[in-house]
Amino acid sequence: MNINSDDVFDDDSLAVMLGEAIEESAAVPGEAVRAAQIIFGMRTIDAEFEIMTLLFDSSAEEISGLRADSSQSRLLTFQAADVTLEVELSDDGALGQLFPPQRGHITLSIAEGPFATADTDELGRFLLPRPGPGPIRFTCQAAAVQTVTDWIVI
Amino acid sequence: MYLDCTVVILRTTDAGAGVGCSEVDGQMSDTAALSDLVEAAGAGDQKAWNELIDRHIPLVFAVARRYRLSDKDCEDVSQTVWLRLLEHLGDIRDPKALPGWLAVTTRNEAFAVLKIRGRNLNAIPLETRERPDDKVDVENDLLRSERNRALRDGMAELTEQQQEFLRLVTADPPLPYAEISRTLGIPIGSIGPTRARYLAKLRSTTAFREYFLAEERDYPAGRRS
Fold first, then answer.
1. Which of A11, A85, B152, B192 has the fewest CB atoms nearer than 10 Å to its CB?
2. Cβ–Cβ < 8 Å for A53, A117
3. B126 shares contact with chain A (CB less than 8 Å)
C-alpha cells in the first residue's frame, strides 16, 4: 500500500506503515543473514588480489520480447588495470579467455570456496565446469597477474 | 551524485542509475553510525559487519522480491551482493552511499537472474521488465526501506509488551480483536485506546523523531514527499 510518510500522525496510516516495516524485516530468511555473516572470514584471504570489475554482462542488457531466452549463453567481461577476462557461460561450462593472452591459472569459486581450476593455454583460453545456481567468481593467477573478479550470481 | 558513492566500484551498467544517495540517506546520526560501521567492518570487526547486514538486508530482499524470484534465487542474489560488498569494504569513501549501492547492485543481479532463468516475463510487473537503470524505483525502495528501518528502530525502543501488542494490531491480514484479546489477555474494549497510546509512544521515540520530524534536523529537500 502506498502511504505517504507525512501520514504518520494518522493512527491508521502509521499502523499500516508499521506493519509493512515489521513484515519487511520478517521476510528475510534467517539463513540468508547467517550466510552473509559467515563470509566475513573469507575476506583477508584475497586482500592481495586486484579486483576485476564486471564491465559487461549480457544478462544485464535489455530484454527483447516478452520471454527471456535462457538457452543463449551468457557473456561476461571483467576488467582490471592490466588484464581483461572474457567468459562465456553456457550449459557446457565456463569457456573463457584472458587478455592479453597468456598462460596462467584460473580458479572458479562458489560461496563455499574453490569449485574448479584450470590452466590457460598460450592464447589465454580455458574451460571450467559450471557449478549449480549461486554466487561465483574467477581468480586469475599469471606471471604478472593476481586478480579476482567481482562476484556474480548464476 | 554517484560520484559521491565512489568507489564501491560499480559495474558500468550502474553508471546511469544516479541514485540520489546523499538525498535519501540524510539522517545525520545514522550516517555517522553507518560510517563507523563501515570503517569497523573494513578493519575486520565481525560485529560491525553483522550490524551492516541486519540494517540493510531487508532492503536487499525487498528489491530482489520485486522480481518475483524464487526464494533460493533471492538468497543467491543477496549472498552475491554481500560477497561483492565485502571485497569493496576498503574502497568506500562515502558510507552514506552504501544503501544506494546495495539497492542498485541487488537490482542488477536480480534482473540478471530473472533473465538467465528464462522466466516468463508476463509474470513480472511491467516496471521491472525494463533494464534496471531508471532511478525512480530504486529511490522509492531506498526511501521506503529507510522509513521501515526508522519505524523498526523506534519500535525497538518500546517495551517487549508494547512491541508484541503493536505486532498483533498491525498484522496483515488484520487479526480480529477477539483473537488479540485472547492472545494478550486484555479486554477487547481496551485494544483501541491502547493502540492509540502505543502508537503515540512510537512517535515519541528517538528513532521516530529523528526520521520523521523535519524540524528536529535538516531534511534534504523532498525528503518527506
1. B192
2. no
3. no
Q: Please tell me what DSSP assigns to residue B92.
A: -
A66 touches B: beta carbon within 8 Å: yes
Q: Which DSSP state fits B214?
A: G
Q: Is the pTM of this model over 0.80?
A: no
Element (H, E) at B99: helix B98-116
| Interface check B114 vs A, CB under 8 A | yes
Per-residue pLDDT in tens (0 to 9) along chain B, 225 residues: 232 333 333 333 333 333 333 333 444 445 558 889 999 998 889 999 999 999 999 999 999 988 888 899 999 999 999 999 998 888 888 888 899 999 999 998 998 888 777 655 555 555 555 554 456 678 888 999 999 999 999 999 999 999 999 999 999 888 999 999 999 999 999 999 999 999 999 999 999 999 998 644 444 444 443
Closest in B13, B61, B203 to A27, CB measured: B61
Which chain A residues are Cβ-neighbours of B170 within 8 angstroms?
15-16, 18-19, 22
Dihedral Cα A115, A119, A123, A127, nearest 10 deg: -40
Say which amino acid occupies A73: S
- Chains A, B: CB contacts within 8 A come to 191
| A60 with B155: Cβ contact below 8 A | no
Q: Residue A29 and residue B109: Cβ atoms within 8 Å?
A: no
- How high is the ipTM of this complex? 0.76
Terminal CA-to-CA distance of chain B, rounded, Å?
A: 19
